[in-house]
Specification:
340 residues; alpha+beta; Annexin V, domain 1; PH-domain like; 3 domains; seven-stranded antiparallel sheet; 10 helices; 14 strands; globular
Length: 340
């Protein structure tokens, strides 16, 4: 954070390396974090994402700039108002093609009134939208490393038959974070409509979510004799689903594994397969479901342990309290330590 603050026109001092006289210490005591928050975070909307330490740089950077540079949360009336407060937003994003790796400019329109996110292949809307996405089944999460851009955002939604991924970015960091919070504002409005008695404490963690774990594993077929193939896996803790794709930037999944509870005959354990046809990796996992067994292989033992720990959380717990859905994994780490 200090690096971001140093880019502002304000004085930054190190607690350990710089000299502090008594007067400066008293000023800091009387104007500490609590006093600053009372001013700069007086009116943060409940849906506005407040990043934690593990979040990507663009979220942290824009959170700090929104507070201290643009002063968006002081409670004073802003003109023009911040886009995430208006219920409508449109603009151009670079979007990856469904069948190729090329990113092209596409127009996106978000309507909170209709609870939809619409995008067009051309700026001319007269030819109709390419897709109309309902906010009900939409998730957005920053995927900077996967997309290969510091402002990369993954938008995921449900179609009639599968899950669809959109990979987008904007060159301007403020614009991409605005899009993220506009989506969160619409999701919040939808949840308040769908669950009118729900409190912010219950609903805010469900607005958007980061996926619990992603990465490559090898997978064989239902007979456990088929050739192992490398697949990209994504564990969505909220839906209790383990998705697998051919590659990490695929638009649609190849398949999905539902992870139920042990009481319903689901289990996860380390495993050494009998057949290793086409297999290059040695650290196995068995995911046992009532329908079939899934054999997966990890490249490293560390990856195997992490996947088992995260998958076991789903098998051991019937429901998730609020902290589970937050991007910070403190609740999860606590329960993994309990497993061990």
């Amino acid at each position: 954070c200090s690096g971001i603050h140093r880019s502002f026109s304000c004085q930054i001092k190190s607690i350990e390396l710089d000299f502090w006289d008594d007067k400066q210490v008293e000023i800091m005591k009387s104007n500490g974090n609590a006093s600053a928050k009372a001013i700069y975070e007086k009116a943060v909307p409940p849906y506005y994402y407040q990043p934690c330490q593990s979040d990507c740089n663009v979220l942290v950077d824009q959170w700090i700039r929104a507070k201290y540079e643009r002063m968006e949360f002081t409670g004073e009336t802003k003109y023009p108002p911040p886009p995430y407060t208006t219920g409508f937003y449109e603009g151009i994003l670079w979007k990856k093609g469904k069948e190729n790796t090329q990113f092209l400019k596409r127009k996106f329109v978000l309507s909170e009134r209709g609870f939809t996110l619409t995008y067009y292949n051309r700026e001319d809307e007269s030819k109709g939208p390419k897709a109309v996405i309902f906010i009900k089944d939409l998730n957005a999460t920053f995927q900077t490393e996967k997309i290969g851009h510091p402002h990369g955002l993954q938008i995921t939604y449900q179609t009639e038959h599968n899950t669809r991924n959109l990979f987008v970015y904007h060159e301007n960091p403020e614009d991409i974070v605005t899009w993220y919070n506009v989506i969160r504002a619409a999701r919040y409005s939808y949840l308040k409509t769908a669950y009118p008695t729900g409190s912010d404490k219950e609903l805010v963690p469900k607005i958007t979510r980061n996926y619990l774990k992603e990465g490559y594993m090898e997978k064989t077929g239902p007979n456990q004799k088929e050739q192992f193939k490398k697949r990209w896996f994504v564990l969505d803790s909220q839906t209790r689903k383990l998705y697998y794709f051919k590659d990490q930037l695929d638009a649609e999944e190849l398949g999905v594994i539902f992870i139920g509870t042990e009481s319903n005959s689901y289990s996860v354990a380390a495993f050494t397969p009998k057949s290793t046809r086409g297999n290059k990796w040695k650290h196995g996992i068995m995911v046992d479901t009532p329908a079939r067994q899934f054999v997966l292989m990890c490249e490293q033992e560390k990856e195997q342990r992490e996947w088992i720990d995260y998958l076991k959380i789903n098998t051991l717990f019937h429901f998730y309290p609020k902290p589970f859905w937050s991007s910070c994994k403190n609740w999860l780490k606590l329960h993994i330590s309990m497993l061990k």
